[in-house]
Amino acid sequence: MSDPVLPTPEQLQRRLQELLRTTFAAPGNSPENPPTPTEPADKVPAAIQDFHLTPREVKAHLDRFVIRQDEAKKVLGIAVCDHYNNARVMASREAGAPPLEYAKQNVLIAGPTGVGKTYLVKHVADLVGVPFVKADATKFSETGYVGGDVDDLVRELVQKADGNLALAQYGIIYIDEIDKIATSREVTGRDVSGRGVQTTLLKLMEETDVALRGGNDLQSQVQAALEFQKRGKVNRESINTRHILFIVSGAFDKLTDVVSRRLKKTGIGFGADPAAATTLPAELLRLAGTSDFVDYGLEPEFIGRLPVRVVCESLAEGDLFEILKQSEGSLIRQYERAFAAYGIEAVFSDEALRHIASLAVRENTGARGLMTTCEGLLREFKYRLPGSPVRTLEVTPAVLENPDAAIERLLQAGAEDARQAQSLVITQFAERFGEQHGYRFRFSPEALEAILAKSLEKNISARDLCEGLFKDYQFGLGLIHRNSGQTDFVIPAEAVESPDRVLSQWVVASHRTQDEHDENS
User: Fold this and answer.
1) Which of 91, 119, 206, 253 could form a disulfide with 44 if both were Cys (CB 3.0 to 4.6 A apart)?
2) How far apart are CA 415 and CA 507, in angstroms?
3) What is the pLDDT of residue 420?
4) pLDDT for the residue numbered 186
5) Smallest Cα–Cα separation from 128: which of 76, 164, 90?
6) Other C-beta atoms within 10 Å of 93: how many?
7) What is the pTM of this model?
8) Contact of 324 with 360, CB cutoff 8 Å
9) Cα angle 65, 69, 73; round to 5
């Protein structure tokens, strides 16, 4: 047997380079050609140049998605508007002008799980038009130790901005479970996952430059080595954190004990009645001051970088019902879409929503309990109804309490039952449309029959059909209302066949009414 032929040093180098390329190169980029920013860092993005929101507008937007938490919405609205108004003013100053003094309003949100903290921050970022990154504080360690590097949060903003450095520098970083990195004053030695992370975060929350390539990231190191080999230099671009807004949150379960002890010692309680406050954890959280957070285990310098603080309230059964019924991001819309994917129209009565809320509140996980409860209640329906002749599922408390019997009944139900349920869908559509736009909106009996027939003919759900037919009616009815003051609209059968023609006729008639009124004035 002959000895194996060993590769030459040149062959080994080529094979190693090929291995590194195929193993570490990100999709769409090669190590020799790392991704370049799509916009230079010094260019001010349009989202910042055009920012002119008011705190009330921010709150109104958040009201669409999050139930209650009015104080948190106000606080976020003010902090966000102050932050991005300052960024806009700074961006408009001429080159060489002295910098303006501004203390960044990073935010701390305290409150139990499942009350909408993440949802609030996400929708703020969506409204402003900046990238948003979320992470749990517990996954990080001090730079140089095993664990995540907090600088990676800033780099992730660049990814979320599709490489747009200019936009990433105005993003929002949200860190949850910040209370979990609080450390006891009795700890000796280096605490790399608690005090160390707080110390590392300090620089980011104030202002620093973060290299786009992490020093502990093997892929980045390989890319840098290959880039240096080919070009003789390494791209050292960085991102500045001056205009990145940091928002942190946590449950701070034990903080109430710290506040309670302080109140008992001082006997003052900032004007509050300590005896009453001790019975209300949320009230105790609102009384928490900087010294309480320090006693809890947050570094003075760290909590000092979070000057804006607000407490979110726990959610009661009625709040969970409102989330299901009113929120634009309601879980019920998700289930409606899930059933619709199988051609099944799911209709949830208010009583069913209250039943779900009453069970979910026992989970003691806020709005997150709604998913757990719904999955348990609707599992059999999602398993057995797809692929069956059933086209409508009317969800009531009785259906939820006895799913097996309800499913058997549905499978045996005739066309008339399905027809009645579809009629309910159409009626609910009209009611929702009217409530949303401030009119009384109804279908005539003939129109309702025409919608049912067309829905069957086209094999689409009645709700989807109505949304398609009358998608432009809110604008036309608004014009009619301005011309004639009319607020009660009954949709005739001909509008189902020719919705635009009927609406046009109504608008023309309202103009005549306005003209006649002007002539008689």
Assistant:
1) 91
2) 38
3) 80
4) 46
5) 76
6) 11
7) 0.64
8) no
9) 75
Average pLDDT over residues 438-461: 89
Say whether pLDDT at 497 is over 90. Answer: yes
Strands 488-491 and 440-443: parallel
Give the DSSP letter of residue 189: S
- Token pair of 31 as six digits: 């190590």
In angstroms, the CA 438 to CA 318 distance is 24
Of 473, 419, 470, 488, residue with least CA distance to 449: 419
Helix (H, G, I), strand (E, B) or coil at 243: coil
**pLDDT tens digits for range 168-193:** 999 999 999 888 888 755 444 445 45
| Pairing verdict, β 245-250 and 209-211 | unpaired
Provide the pLDDT for residue 276: 45
Render 411-475 in DSSP notation, one character per residue: HH--HHHHHHHHHHHHHHHHHHHHHHHTSEEEE-HHHHHHHHHHHHHHT--HHHHHHHHTTTHHH
- Please name the residues in contact with 116: beta carbons below 8 A apart, sequence gap of 6 or more: 66, 67, 68, 69, 312, 366, 367
Residue 43's closest CA among 96, 89, 102, 91? Answer: 91
Q: What is the dihedral of CA 308, 238, 210, 208, to 10 degrees?
A: -50
For 233-237, what is the mean pLDDT? 60
Helix (H) or strand (E) holding 59: helix 55-63
List the structure tokens of 45. Answer: 């993005």
Residues 467-494 have a mean pLDDT of 91
Q: Are 228 and 217 in contact (CB under 8 A)?
A: no
* Gap between the Cα atoms of 134 and 156, Å rounded: 10
In whole angstroms, give the CA distance from residue 77 to residue 19: 50
Question: Is the model's pLDDT at 21 over the cut of 70?
Answer: no
pLDDT band at 32 (very low <50, low <70, confident <90, very high): very low
Dist CA 313 CA 319 (whole Å): 11
Q: Which is more confident, 12 or 445?
A: 445
SS3 242: coil
Rounded CA separation 63/244 (Å) = 24
- Quick one: average pLDDT of 234-257? 84
Residues in the chain, overall count:
521
* Whether the Cβ atoms of residue 330 and residue 353 lie closer than 8 Å to each other: no
Integer Cα distance of 509 and 507 in angstroms: 5
